[in-house]
Amino acid sequence: MTSIDHAPTQSSAAPVGADDALPTDLVDVAVLGGGAAGLNGALMLSRSRRSVVVIDSGTPRNAPAEGIHGLLGNEGTPPAEFLARGRAEVRQYGGLVVTGEVAAARAAAPAPDGDLRFAVELTDGRALTARRLLIATGLRDELPDIPGLAQHWGHGLVHCPYCHGWEVRDEPIGVIATRAASLHQALMFRQLSADVTVFTHGFAPDEESRGRLAARGVALREEGIEEIVAAAGGGIAGVRLTGGELVPRAVLTVATVMAPRTDGLQELGLTIEEIGGGMGTKIASGFAGVTEVPGVWVAGNAADPSAQVGPSAAGGALAGGHINGMLVMADTDAAVAARRAEAA
Ligand SMILES: Cc1cc2nc3c(=O)[nH]c(=O)nc-3n(C[C@H](O)[C@H](O)[C@H](O)COP(=O)(O)OP(=O)(O)OC[C@H]3O[C@@H](n4cnc5c(N)ncnc54)[C@H](O)[C@@H]3O)c2cc1C
């Protein structure tokens, strides 16, 4: 497997403006990751007059994309512009957005009244204490190890018919099939182009699947892939099969294996679970992103690898609202206890 390198790219280098300083006082919520999920969570929290800090390392999953598609009201907006707008909206209500990378996050000793505390450390040595955490670090895509493949990720090599499908309509498309789900992906792209070829890679379709592909006019090549050949002017020239034949293709699709980005989060003890069908893993969560670790919520691709930008933002909003609701209850419980102690 080749892990997609989440290094900042030209398109992800969002104009962050003047970076906020990390507060030294206790904050209500630290949001780890400032993509669509984290920023929408922070928006809900800051509008609820919660002190909230988003810590973001600036490498969103869709950084290679030129524009976001399928998101009403934002069709074609460059990811960096979308996130810059989101940061400004969070800051408008007093939320802080800090550029930094989380090195460690862990439960700390609770407050004397039993309220939870979390310690967050950044790779540059800065530190923060928060009452609650929202994990919104996204996911990492892993590609099959095929020479020449990874360099085309997010451009000639795409994964999602809703993100890039319209843009590659009618093109000669190649589907790199690594598992049964790849055949569904082939049929999805067949909806967008009549010229689709499936190239198997360590996977053999069963008879029924072959019949379904053939019925839709999808070609099947099972010789094995030697390498992806780049075009002279950039882009993809085609797929070189074992044996030497070059099958011309302008666009390739592949179903990645996905894993939540948990760098620095190990000490929290979050449960990582399989998502089935060989698709990878995610952080286990329930309603509104509640995890099995008290005081920790998760939203976006870290919790739901299938979520596009819209559902990721919605997940963050739901989690942010739920965290505020739980804090309201905790604050009220503490106030009642203090009142009783005073009266005693
Ligand atoms: C090539 C490509 C194109 C896509 N195009 C579309 C599209 O057109 N339309 C669409 O709806 N969806 C698209 N998607 C899907 C989209 O990228 C995701 O739905 C979305 O990014 C999920 O949002 P998120 O907030 O969960 O994660 P992300 O956007 O990945 O944000 C996570 C953030 O957390 C930060 N982070 C991670 N670890 C740490 C850490 N340890 N410390 C601090 N910060 C950290 C990262 O830097 C990142 O900024 C595309 C995906 C890909 C791969």
Characterization of this structure:
The chain has 344 residues and is an alpha/beta fold. The protein folds into 2 domains: 2-138 and 261-343, 3-Layer(bba) Sandwich (FAD/NAD(P)-binding domain), CATH 3.50.50; 143-254, 3-Layer(bba) Sandwich (FAD/NAD(P)-binding domain). The protein has 6 helices and 20 strands. The strands form 5 sheets. Strands 2, 3, 4, 5, 6, 7 and 20 form a 7-stranded mixed sheet that branches. It has a 5-stranded parallel sheet with strand order 9-16-10-11-12, with helices on one face. Mean pLDDT is 95; it is low at 7-16.
What is the element layout, followed by pairings?
Layout: E1 2-3, E2 27-32, H1 36-47, E3 52-56, H2 79-92, E4 96-99, E5 102-108, E6 117-122, E7 127-135, E8 139-143, E9 157-158, H3 161-164, E10 173-177, H4 180-190, E11 196-200, H5 207-215, E12 219-221, E13 225-230, E14 236-241, E15 246-248, E16 251-254, E17 257-260, E18 272-274, E19 281-283, E20 296-298, H6 309-343
Parallel strand pairs: 2-3, 2-7, 3-4, 7-20, 9-16, 10-11, 10-16, 11-12
Antiparallel strand pairs: 1-8, 5-6, 6-7, 8-17, 13-14, 14-15, 18-19
Shape descriptor = elongated
Mean pLDDT: 95
CATH superfamily of the largest domain: FAD/NAD(P)-binding domain
- Number of strand elements: 20
Strand proportion, as a percent range, falls in 25-35%
CATH architecture group name of the largest domain? 3-Layer(bba) Sandwich
End-to-end span in angstroms? 64 Å
Remind me, CATH topology of the largest domain? FAD/NAD(P)-binding domain
Low-confidence stretches: 7-16
Main sheet, how many strands, which sense, barrel? Answer: 7 strands, mixed
Secondary-structure element pattern, one letter each:
EEHEHEEEEEEHEHEHEEEEEEEEEH
Please write the CATH class name of the largest domain: Alpha Beta
